Amino acid sequence: MVDLYRLPADTPAFQQLSAVKDPIARAEGLEQAIAADLGDERLFPYIQVHEFEALLLAEPERLGCLPGRGEAVRRLVAAVGEYDSPEHIDGGEETHPCARIVQCVPGYSKVVDGPQLAALTGLERLRNSCRHFGAWLTRLEDLGAE
Fold first, then answer.
1. How many whole angstroms separate alpha carbon 61 and alpha carbon 58?
2. What's the gap between Cα 56 and its chain centre?
3. How far apart are CA 31 and CA 8, in angstroms?
4. pLDDT at residue 93 above 90?
5. Among 44, 54, 47, which residue's Cα sits nearest to residue 99?
6. Is there a contact between 97 and 51 (Cβ–Cβ < 8 Å)?
7. Would you call 20 helix, strand, or coil by DSSP?
8. How far apart are CA 14 and CA 26, in angstroms?
9. Residue 33 and residue 41: Cα distance in Å, rounded?
């Protein structure tokens, strides 16, 4: 898993796809370019749109389990609701998913809080809210059916 946010400029097809507005389409194009560049059919590249914290915004209300964050979480829930999906939350310097969470929960720790919040949200909700992530999981699961 690699984050689309701040992906290195020397990533295959990075420059060609930088003008693509839809972050999911951009990630899919980059994944195809990476797979072609590496040339190994066993590789299923996955680029998280925009970053891991986008998954946590599948159910931003969960941030409310962290103490004293009621009003800040309500503002975040409202802001996230303006997007088609958590994966469409923009990657601006102050508005990428992690920045939004840190603004809401200043003590947020990607390493400690991130996995706990993802577990509380549940894999089914994550995959349903974040279709790019869900499609990648389905592709991996389908390997077992072959």
1. 9
2. 8
3. 13
4. no
5. 54
6. yes
7. coil
8. 9
9. 13
Q: What are the b/e assignments for 57-89, b being 16+ CB within 10 Å?
A: bbbbebbbebeebeebbeebbebbeeeebbbbb
Q: With a cut of 90, say whether residue 35 has pLDDT above it.
A: yes
Distance, in Å, from the CA atom of 32 to the CA atom of 35, rounded to the nearest integer, reads 5
Residue with tokens 């310097």: 93
pLDDT digits (tens, 9 = 90+) for 45-79: 999 998 899 999 999 888 877 666 778 888 888 88
Tokens of 127: 């995959």
What is the secondary structure of 87-135 as a DSSP string? GGS---TTTSHHHHHHHH-TT--TTTHHHHHHHHH-HHHHHHH-HHHHH
- The answer to whether the beta carbons of residues 88 and 94 sit under 8 Å apart is no
